């Protein structure tokens, strides 16, 4: 069995991943901002938890925690930020929040993990179809889609940079999934897929 770090673990896709992997017998390190949700998840699954805010990260704290837990076989960077606003209503703070959570935190997380990644470790960043060239685009998502678009080429660059190792780097571009984050941004929309489907 492996040991995996999952971000955005307190709800949605991240929570579903923690439950699935622990049910399969893997050790899971769950990372999220919500301490109460993480404690509930730990009671349900036995996972290790760390309350951590990717908007204001202390990477040394994360590195110390990872090292104390042991070698990781993978990172699933699932945490994301989505705020639907028209382009003219987007504030600098809105744009920075999207890029901090959806892009810059990926760099910090991966740097923090590599020191304790197993020989055949795997890093997966959850992106979005909305960030892919040629896909349908929607009003109000300029900051979100452009930030998610940055994940794919950066992931490809990491795969090239570490091609001499057995590490794997992938970006998974999902379509709409019915999560709390999606419901908060688009309350009248119902996605065809749920996190645990």
Mean model confidence by pLDDT? 88
**Proportion of strand residues:** 15-25%
Strand line-up of the largest beta sheet: 3-2-1-4-5-6
Shape: globular
H and E order? EHEHEHEHEHHEH
The separation of the N and C termini measures: 23 Å
Question: Which secondary-structure class do the elements indicate?
Answer: alpha/beta
Helicity range of the residues?
40-55%
Oligomeric state, counting identical vs distinct chains:
single chain
Query: Could you give the count of β-strands?
Result: 6
**Rg result:** 16 Å
Query: Low-confidence runs (pLDDT<50, min 5 residues)?
Result: none
Largest sheet: 6 strands, parallel
Number of helices: 7
Question: How would you sum up this structure, described in words?
Answer:
- It is globular, with a radius of gyration of 16 Å.
- The protein is an alpha/beta fold.
- The protein has helices spanning 12-23, 35-45, 59-69, 92-114, 142-149, 151-161, 180-185, and strands at 3-7, 27-32, 48-51, 72-77, 117-128, 168-174.
- 42% of the residues lie in helices and 20% in strands.
- The longest helix is centred in the middle third of the chain and has 23 residues, at 92-114.
- The model has no long low-confidence stretch (mean pLDDT 88).
- It has a six-stranded parallel sheet with strand order 3-2-1-4-5-6, sandwiched between helices.
- Helix 2 links the parallel strand 2 and strand 3.
């Amino acid at each position: 069995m492996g040991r995996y770090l999952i971000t955005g673990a307190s709800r949605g896709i991240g929570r579903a991943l923690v439950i699935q992997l622990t049910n399969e017998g893997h050790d899971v390190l769950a990372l999220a901002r919500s301490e109460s949700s993480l404690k509930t998840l730990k009671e349900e699954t036995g996972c290790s938890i760390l309350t951590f805010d990717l908007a204001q990260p202390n990477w040394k704290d994360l590195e110390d925690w990872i090292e104390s837990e042991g070698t990781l076989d993978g990172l699933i960077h699932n945490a994301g930020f989505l705020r639907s606003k028209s382009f003219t209503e987007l504030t600098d703070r809105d744009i920075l929040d999207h890029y901090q959570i959806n892009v810059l935190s990926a760099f910090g997380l991966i740097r923090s993990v590599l020191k304790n990644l197993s020989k055949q470790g795997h890093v997966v960043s959850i992106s979005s179809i909305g960030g892919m060239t040629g896909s349908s685009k929607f009003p109000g998502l300029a900051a979100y889609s452009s930030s998610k678009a940055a994940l794919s080429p950066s992931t490809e660059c990491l795969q090239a940079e570490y091609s001499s190792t057995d590490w794997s780097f992938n970006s998974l571009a999902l379509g709409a999934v019915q999560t709390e984050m999606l419901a908060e941004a688009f309350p009248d929309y119902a996605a065809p897929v749920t996190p645990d489907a």
